[in-house]
Predict the structure.
Amino acid sequence: MPDRPIDLRSDTVTKPTAAMRRAMAQAEVGDDVYGEDPTVNRLEERAAELVGKEAALFVPSGTMGNTIAIKLHTRHGQEVICEARSHVFNYELAMTAWFAGCLARPIATEDGILDWRAIEPAIRPPGPHWAPTGLIVLENTHNMAGGTVYPVATFREVCERAHALGIKVHLDGARLFNAAVYLKRPVRELAESADTVMFCLSKGLGAPAGSVLVGPREAIAEARLYRKRLGGGMRQAGVLAAAGLIALDEMRDRLEEDHENARAVAEILREVPGVTIPHRVETNIVIVDVSATGVPAEHLSQELRRRGVLINPVGPWRLRVVTHYDVTREECLRAAQMLAGVVAHLRRTEGGS
Ligand code: TLP
């Protein structure tokens, strides 16, 4: 394998930029559990202002942000409506059940976008036999549906109708800034009707760690206690928050480059016999369906790794390509060509279909 593989496994692999490293080295810090870290406080103020909510809480990971939000809005024994391929349902180690004591009620969609028509029949009215719906979680962009973006009106309608029934909405906006760049809208517009929003600094925005949970002041004050319970009181976390501030101020606009690179990858892969791209490519994620090649995704992933290209399988017949700051356009194209070549080679030599 070459020295520096082309790593398209996730945008979580991005390393801090030189500007981030400088800011981290110089960060003014204090004990954040006492609320005394000036850099964390600055990051939280900036995040709340950008997303248009009263307050924000810096958390170590997106998973912790979602976990706290679900706990905040629910009571034990309720149901949480989410999309069937959502991160909260599939990739957070059942935290909805473990921490909040709730049952996830997943709803399958074609493209990850849950609209009110799909949600309404799953809402549980009060009654002696079922657990009431406590919360709806939406994911924008939708990771496993290929980075698809919620139309603002669809998102707003879900929130308004849920609120009319007294149900809260949490937005898993791990990649919300990608959605904002795609729609060319301010991020606050995409967040305004949700009760709480989690977004990640450590994905396309390039910070080494950290996410932010934003929402009403009272809810965020309670969230601070849950963060401590979960072991997320990070003390001199200003060294991380300093990178987060650079992520917010300098890294948002360039996400468009990642989106262009993803589209370029998809264009190449669409031409490969046996390969299909099942979802719209709107942001920085391309889901690649290889079922018609007869070569399992895991096998392709291993063969690519041997050739210096890292791409994860996300199912028996699916791979996920994620573009980001640490891969150039040229590397993305090279990786796509490599995938095309490996598919053709394995179909010939191993009798894939
Ligand atoms: N996603 C990771 C993996 O966990 C799958 C990735 O490589 O994409 N919400 C969404 C929509 C996410 O994609 C992720 C991470 C999270 C939440 C959790 O963030 P972290 O990894 O910071 O806990």
